[in-house]
Design brief:
Blueprint: E1 2-7, E2 38-39, E3 46-59, E4 63-65, H1 72-75, E5 78-79, E6 84-86, E7 102-105, E8 110-111, E9 119-123, E10 128-129, E11 132-136, E12 140-145, E13 151-159, E14 162-171, H2 180-183, E15 197-200, E16 205-211, E17 218-224, E18 229-231, E19 237-243, E20 246-254, E21 257-265, E22 270-279, E23 310-311, E24 318-321
Parallel strand pairs: 1-22, 2-8, 3-22, 5-23, 9-12, 11-17
Antiparallel strand pairs: 3-19, 3-24, 4-6, 7-18, 7-20, 9-10, 12-15, 13-14, 13-16, 16-17, 20-21
Amino acid sequence: MLHLRTEALFPARGTILALFAVTFCGVLNPLHSGFAYEEIPNFTGGNLEGSVSIKGMLQSPRRYNLVLSADPYYCGRISDGKGWRLSPITRPGPNHSLPGAVVYLENVPQGKAAPSTPDIVQTKDCMFLPYVSTTKAGQELHFTNWDPVEHKLEIFLTSATGGLHLFGQTLPPHPDNRKSDFLSEGTTGTHRAGSKVTYAVDKTGIILFRCSYHEFMEGWGIALPHPYVTLAGKRGEFSISDIPPGTYNLIIWHPMGQTITSIHILPERTLNVDVDIRSTSTTAYPEDTHKPDPFGIDLVGDAHIIPSVELQEWDSPSEIVR
């Protein structure tokens, strides 16, 4: 069993607005838009298994004043009960594991066939689901809106010069979805999917999904030319099979940080690797100083924004995971 403890290399993400200020410069070793991959039928090789955990200080999630965004009542069904929506939270799992981390090999030239099933991303309760995903470069992404409100999808590719805008289109709601069915006391609305929007990512790299109507909505994806990628499970566990023998960079990536380390795969053998990501004050969920906002929740009048789906809580400004 090989156990690796690797420092986070550089900031994995700042705020959404910081994307346009080239915060993401150098976020990941550059992936190659023209990188070729050859699929070999019935290919077999070595295997990789292991786990991902996170260490260090976890920063508080960023807070967004719902009054400053569209649909504060509906989107506020997930909020802190005081009119603020928190950015998506990934809490460590058992033994400080990091569920949802992307685990992949860099620059695999050939090997097993990649799945051809289109990837699906939903917007529901003003969230992108899944929060972190993977896709094969060139494969279609299908987006559907399950909310009774309109979303404006924007897709960016991170690059050395900041966010490269790839795509933008409205995600319409289903015509039978009504906000009142979700907001009226004692009623529960039914989520129905609006018309599908399709986009094929023709480049490789880290991709950001965001809604330009709701600043707190974000999702992340990694587009790769090969299938040697997986997401860590609930306990941080992962496995990748049938890898061509050789030496590779093993990359673990999450919005809270990343690591890169060299591994060697042997034919018909299984390599076990446990990897620690060390979170620092620059890697995860940065929050501006929480000050009184001139556009307070009182602007919505006597009504209250009720977190009827989820009361978001963060126990302390920071948490140490050892």
